[in-house]
Write a structure and sequence with these properties.
Length: 485
Amino acid sequence: MKYNINIGLEVHVELATQSKLFCGCSTKFGAPPNSQTCPVCLGMPGVLPVINKKAIELALITALALNSKINENFRFARKNYYYPDLPKNYQISQYEEPLANGGWVEIEINGKTKKIGLERIHLEEDAGKLIHAEDTGDPEDKDWSFVDYNRAGIPLLEIVSRPEITSPEEAYEYLTTLRRILRYLKVSDCNMEEGSLRCDANVSITPHAERKGTKTELKNMNSFKELREGLRAEIERQAKLLDRGEKVIQETRYWDPKKKKTYSMRGKEEAHDYRYFPEPDLLPVHVDKDWIEKLKAKLPELPQERFRRFVHEYGLPPYDAGVITESRNFADYFEECVKLFPKPKVVSNWLMSDFKSLIKKEENLENIKVSPTGIADLLTEVEKGRLSTTMAREVMREMFKTGKGVAQIIEERGLRQISDKESLNAIAEEVIKENPKAVQDFQKGKFQVVKFLVGQLMKKTKGKANPQLANELIEQKLKSLSGEK
């Protein structure tokens, strides 16, 4: 492309606190509209906000993980604007004295590592939510919009990147990496469908000879896929304008995922438009150094560090390590299994396939009925030849349904694999006698009949025969009948 691309992302993360940022109202998602409000979050006269310490702590943990410089003293500010979902007509946010500055997110793109710098990290309260006619499903609502203030006041962490992202693909990788880190820290569930992770983008393109272009802000990108597609469409729109010798206007634009186009919403505000001033009802916050040191000690191993360790310590292929470390809970579960059954690649094979297909979300691993001990017991049975792979899959499904142990399920279902050579030898002879044509075909060089005969033996044993031993016995008998040694 003949233009330089500069993208900066503003990521808004709802923090995983049980109460709002300045009052005691619940933050639980899905409650009836306006049922989780009080005079404080509704901005009634005479009320005073009180800071939620847990929200500050989660914000500090995030800043530490993202290599940011935490400011020893920071304060809140009023951001003044009018919109129906903002009950006070101002938002308590941060401006000149944010919680943290700087830092970076390290991404992997096209086999290379790149650091995307951060501008700032700050705390603010969320706004409410407007509900329009198309969302209610009621034709009588077509002339109305409704407002739900349940979300107003929920702790929101804004992470602002520098405009160092140079493609939609880099933006996608940045957001997925950041989300993974936040979920490892357990500061947010980062569920885009429920609005706990939202992202706006600032986009500008310039000819290679110029350094700075006019930026537009892009909103309504509600998934990682939509982020990538929305950026592609906006970059293409700006390029066409410049190709025609026209100017890009600084404005806020709306991404329409159905039409795959961006549309103008309003002129882009500048900071002075919001008339920021220090929040008079809240004192500045002082962060004690001992508190920071205690939080540092609690930081978990982050996903990229864990990925590298899984490759080097466990010898996992990068693909396996990437899948397993995508979720902190999944990676924890894997390591518990490996402690009990120290064959990492075998464990990863089972967890990535059959096990993963039986869980809906890796984040819910603490609620499943199958413990790492159960997985280790199952793999031990397979390794010792007492269960075939097919049987083991059946046992695993039953473990998920009932929570029963491996030994109990094997006993109840009679699933013990037949590995006794004498027993299988007799059955193999029966199969040979019952299929003379297959024997003749083998003698003519059609060796694929071995699979057919093994299948017949498995039928007779209802799938309980050791498949490897069954294959060996059938081959031996066919070669013997053909005069081979």
